[in-house]
Amino acid sequence: MSDERLAHLLDQAIPGIPEELRRPPLAELRSRVRRRRTRRTVFAAAGLTLLLLTGPAVWYSGALDEGRHNGGPAGEPTAVAHDRLNWWMARMNRAGTEITVFVSRPLDAPPCQGVWLPEATVTAGTTAVTVTVSDRSPTGAGCATSENLTPLRVALPGSLAERAFLDGYDGSSRPVYREADLPVVPGGPDGWAETPGSFAAPIAEVRTVPGYWVLSYGRVGGPDIIIRGHRPEHGMRGAPDGDPIDRVEVAGNPGGVYRTGPDRFVLHWAATGVEYVLTVVPAEGESVSLPMFREVLGRIGVS
Fold first, then answer.
1. From residue 97, how far is each of 75, 153, 161, 167, 178 by CA, in Å?
2. Which is higher by pLDDT, 36 or 143?
3. How far is CA 56 from CA 60, 64, 77, 97, in A?
4. Residue 298 CB-half CA count within 13 A
5. Strand 118-124 and strand 128-135: pairing?
6. DSSP-based three-state secondary structure for 147
7. CB 137 within 8 A of CB 115
8. Of 78, 259, 272, 76, whose CA–CA distance to 174 is shortest?
9. Whole-number Å distance between alpha carbons of 218 and 202
10. Kind and range of the H or E element at 155?
11. What is the CA radius of gyration of the chain?
12. What is the spatial distance between Cα 172 and Cα 90, in angstroms, rounded to a whole number?
């Protein structure tokens, strides 16, 4: 499948925000944020060393577009009261040492004032982990530079992979898509390359919120692989009706292969409170036979 076709499929599944609702950033505040980020970099190494030595229960992480870092400069002013941001879902790396949360302004946020600077604080409880994202921009009420959710990498201070994750904005539980629950898709010349995805931020006028997560892998000449994840209570359909054609194991979890139509098959499995569906998308003009589907599953360690 071509990159253009894959992008078209993702655009259809995840619509963006209408042009009239986009909020362009202010150029002068961009300059101010860049100067502030420069000051923060000087203190990053010292802040990280202090946190590692003292082993705190609270961990800080910076924004994705400036690279992950921990801590901040001494004497930084406390953010204003309306600085809290929402995050809606997260992706955890395979080692369980870092998550990427997807952030937006709250639906009931005050009017936007400039460009935001999101940072995260992690508080580990006995049964749940609270990730609180705040806007550390000068106004504390900034906006993103895109209409999509903003990814923010957050380091985890310990072995927290199996715990529930809460949004510090309102205490809501959020879905976490763990790479350890997914098959390992090989890369390289004979493998696949992950296609970066984006997710539309919620719109206040209709109060929609992101409900599912998509991960796509492409290769020259196809076929491509798409993995979709969602919570069981989501309205999106999980396992098809009927018995599976094959019963398989996916990253240690039981799964099943189902026929959903002529030359159409899906792999379904569930892990850590999330349901996953994998589909194989053929090159244009081709179809997916059951032997091809099984061959792709074998290449990614599903058997």
1. 28, 11, 8, 18, 11
2. 143
3. 10, 22, 21, 16
4. 6
5. antiparallel
6. coil
7. yes
8. 272
9. 28
10. strand 150-155
11. 21
12. 13
Tokens representing residue 247 in the block: 């019963």
| 292's tokens | 């091809």
Mean pLDDT of the 211-223 span: 91
Confidence of residue 291 (pLDDT cuts 50, 70, 90): very high
Q: Are 147 and 204 in contact (CB under 8 A)?
A: no
235-240-243 Cα angle (round to 5) = 150
224 Cβ contact list (under 8 Å, min separation 6)? 1, 6, 192, 216, 217, 218, 280, 281
The owner of tokens 């190494």 is 45
What is the structure's pLDDT at 159? Answer: 82
Instruction: Tell me what the mean pLDDT of segment 10-28 comes to.
Output: 39
pLDDT more than 70, % of the chain: 69
pLDDT single digits (tens) 84-105: 999 999 999 999 999 999 999 9
Mean pLDDT, the chain, rounded, equals 77
Tell me: cis bond preceding 223? Omega within 30 of 0 counts. yes
pLDDT at 75: 37
Q: Is the peptide bond before 56 cis (omega within 30 degrees of 0)?
A: no
CB-based contact 58:123 (threshold 8 Å): yes
